Amino acid sequence: MQLVLIIALIIGIADANTLSVCPNGWIAYEGSCYLFGHEDIPMTFTAAEQYCRQHGGGHLIHVENVQENAFIKDQLRERKPIHWWLGITDEETEGIWKWFDDDSVATYTDFQPDDHDTLDQDCLIFTSVYDFRWADVQCSYKFPPICEIRSEHIEPGVVG
User: Fold this and answer.
1) Is the pLDDT of residue 133 over 70?
2) Does residue 1 form part of some domain?
3) Torsion angle, CA of 121/122/126/132, rounded to 10 degrees?
4) I need a surface site. Which of 30, 98, 116, 157 has the fewest CB within 10 A?
């Protein structure tokens, strides 16, 4: 009987370790890991992207669909800052929003009403003003980042 319990315990520990695919401090959801940057250290869009690369090799968040967006909004409602960077810009062509990590055109968006085509506002944030819908702002503004790593891009040895 003891042997069965020991084997079950070992299997349980092994299973728990295989489920932990995100680095320490990151949150797992549907094949990605997310890191919410330090709330008291806001940074520009460019600095936020660099921060994500330096902390686990990720990028600013690339929101694929309504489910992922809802998950992130739920996370943001529990945090202090009212604005957070997304990894998307229309700096290249006004009104054509492209994800910074892979240069793809956004197929899903969640803009706040009438706020996605303002000149000189080429980066997007989640804003609590409209329940964390997206708003365009100048890339030089300073907000905390939301970083993302896709599970397949996590380097061995950085698992938490």
Assistant:
1) yes
2) no
3) 60
4) 157
